[in-house]
Write a structure and sequence with these properties.
The complex is a heterodimer of chains A (618) and B (315). Chain A contains 24 helices and 22 strands. Chain A has 618 residues and is an alpha/beta fold. The longest helix of chain A is centred in the N-terminal third of the chain and has 18 residues. Classes of the chains: A alpha/beta (618), B mainly alpha (315).
Amino acid sequence: MNAIGQLAPPVLDVRNLSITYGPLRAVRGVSFSIAPGEALGLIGESGSGKSSVAYAVMRHIKGQATGTVRVDGQDIMTLSEPALARMRGRTAAMVYQDPMSALNPAIKVGEQIAEAIRLHRAADRSTAWTRAVALLERVHLPHPSEIAHRYPHQLSGGQQQRVVIAMALACQPRLLIMDEPTTGLDVTTEAVILELVNELRRETGVAVLFISHNMGVVAQVCDRVGVLYAGQLIEEGTTQQVLRTPRHPYTVALMRAMPAIGGPRRRLAAIPGRLPDLRTPPVGCVFSPRCAIAEATCHDVMPELDAAGHAGSTHHSRCHFQNEIHQRLPPEPLMEEEAVTTAVKGRPRLQMVDLCRSFRGRSALPFLRGPAPVRAVDHVTLDIPAGRTLAVVGESGSGKSTLARCVAGLIVPEAGDIRLEEAVLERLVQRRPRPAQQAVQFVFQNPDAALNPHRTVAEIVGRPMQLYGGLAGRALRRRVIEQLESVKLGERYLDLYPREMSGGEKQRVSIARAFAGHPRLVICDEPTSALDISVQAAILNELLALQRRHGTSYLFISHDLGVVRHVAHHVAIMRQGRIVESGSPAAVFGAPREAYTRALIAAIPTLEPRPQPVSLPT
Amino acid sequence: MQALGFILRRTLLLAVVLLVVSLLTFGIVNVLPGDVATAVLGDMATPEQAAALRERLGLDEPLAQRYLAWLTALLQGDFGTSLQHGQPIAPLLMGRLGNSAILGLLTLTIAAPLAVALGIVAALRPGGLLDRLIGAIAVGAYALPEYVIGLLAILAFSIWLPVLPGTSLMDPNENPLARPEALVLPVCVLITGMLAFISQITRASMIQVMASPYVRTAILKGVPFRRVVLKHALPNLLPPTITEIGMYLGYVIGGLVVVETLFSYAGLGQLVTNAVSYRDVPVIQATVLLVAAAYGIGNLLADVVALLLTPRLRA
């Protein structure tokens, strides 16, 4: 908390906020305040209630909220609708997760900003427009007067988010609520957006409530951090206090589950168990069912959010053992360093030889030539040895998914060969003979879309066994159960449908399905990007264990360098369809040769605040 | 440029569709079992009369040649001669087309905005009293065929409560706008069905639009609710709704046939009904083709308007 914060009344003061959605108690007794000019980060996984808190501050939730929320001194819980409309956008403004959908596709971006100014500042059209253009310049958009006339679809994701930020700043609000503002953006774009947020904070003195699941992102922006779990604030303090010396086992567990780009290679520690049922939250500590150091009192008595260390400390934790958790928690396990760093002998399992694939745009007029085709995969040659992982890393539009789909036979490459143990594979998966289909399997990013909602787990996992192994009846059932147990799911999942499972469980089923036919290569296309950090750790560990057991090769597609460093034996950085750099993770991350790789690494939000802005080579 | 390409592509496609329709109507009328001449003249005709008619219509020539001759004449604006009236079809058709267009366009200009407005009102409080009321009436109206609604309307407003003429009894050359009271009931009957369908389609899209993140952005920007609906939701609601209205044109045309016959209104629908009962083959062919063209052009216009209202597509 800064010096001004002690004196001036808080811009946002939330007291004992509880939110219920029917029987679901999404948020329970959350209190915090934000001083003028201060940035508070709320960290939490899905189901923590962090977005509910953010929207409750704007009084825009479907559920029932109790408690008090004071924005700039006004209790918004009791405001009339017209008074609420005057507060929204003027005193407090919001920045959203997905800027493409947050902007109205039918209105010019300049008008979307100018509208707020006309409404709240009673400005006339031309004044409002001039100010909108100035705001676009303020968020560093090139040619602001021209961009103001564009529609959202004519801007890139990063530019759209700048527009949303400009819109939020239009009436010089005292409070900015940012709900996962960089989730879904590329790391390099994320870095510049975070830098912009910091600059605007410095220059306008706006207070920020920053919602995120990413601790690195929060560390780049926030002075103070609160950690939410199952609807309760379980830890709060300065960013340094919470992220350097966490005083709650859940915060520690989150840090240990987070793959990092630097430091020694650790074993990612998954958090066992799952979120408690929010209809009947535990009477004791909410985290106690999953906590490594829980004792009898933890299950019976709910701890208060108390000052940690000395009385009056700014660091608060809701744990009975907050002052001794570091003595009680087991030490962090380091990864056993791979013995084999020398080149693996023998033929590679998979070879991609000079693969090319481009996509043609549609021509504007019939019988005319369309725009020049985009080269999504541009002469890519890569090998994957047996039992090893090749990670292809790139930002959106780099062609990494197209490459994966070519190998899987879902997209036909225009040129080049895909060889599985020297045998050239048919380009289209339907043309590949059964054994070749069996040998190459796929784990997709979104298990919701990949699993048939009308099939039970037993049918999903059993299908490849019937198809490739000819199993049936009892034998099939026994093998399915074995397969489920190998991904830490048991017999009780057999008759469940995908909708009855959590995201992590569904991804485990996807993996069990992929491994059911004993594949030699599994293509993992962003297998953990849709999952929470704690679940991601478990899934990555599972993939590593399966690889060790079966000697499977992985083609691992990801945008997350931390994850890649954790799983890959070999890394290839892809940009605009080409491989710009490749090598061992130690070489690529330790001593990158290409400027692009360096920029990519520098852009990753780490727990250390970044000293200077990142620039991307053109 | 994109829009121009779209219009060009669709116009070409429409030409192909009309060619296929011409082939089908010509085929259905001429290839179906039975002799056209006998069908036209009826059972009482002598073989000599039938032969004379066959000669006059050129029915002895090969089918492909007749089709080509018909199509060539058509492209030059010659729709042939009516068997029933013994007059060239083109002027006959144009007068009737005008009358039908008045009925159809009146229906569209009244029903389309009203249906969209009702749909929006219903969507603002899904499950509310207004929504349930509009929904119930819409389902009822949609379930009743036009002739039932028409007869009920005649019963109610020209027999029980004689305020409006129950039949137009108009001369084909008369301007229907000269007697606006005769238009009221036919137009009302046509409107009912359209209101029912389009309002429910609009309601469904509006609920979706109101739940979208950009509407949330507008609300949290402090935009008053009325303005959120009119300035933020409506521009995104209109394009898909206009496309739906374009597709609904087919039903309006179908309704015209029923309503014109019911009210003795001298339009295309009445013409084609008469032509069918008189087996006036050239008139049937010409009318079907004209109706197909009207539907195709109407549809194309709706799609172009929808395209022009969607910034993402028109650029």
